[in-house]
Amino acid sequence: MDLTALAEAARSAWVVWLMVLFLGVVFWAFRPKNRQRFEDDARIPFRDEENGG
């Protein structure tokens, strides 16, 4: 196996790894279990206004 073939195999492995990572993040972000957490996090900038600050 020469260096060119090794580089091509590594490039393919990175593409697969990044696709799996991306799909994992998308799955985690759209899980119904995380909805309340993300809604709470979205309100962080407005917490001072709600507390009269």
What does this structure look like?
74% of the residues lie in helices and 0% in strands. With 53 residues, the protein is an all-alpha fold. The chain has a domain at 21-53. It is elongated.
Structural class: mainly alpha
| Mean pLDDT across residues | 90
Largest sheet: none
**Percent in helix:** over 70%
The number of E-state strands comes to: 0
Low-confidence stretches: none
From the alpha-carbon coordinates, what is the Rg to the nearest angstrom?
A: 21 Å
How is the topology of this model organized?
Layout: H1 3-29, H2 35-42, H3 47-50
Summarize the structure.
The protein has 53 residues and is mainly alpha-helical. It is built from three helices and no strands.
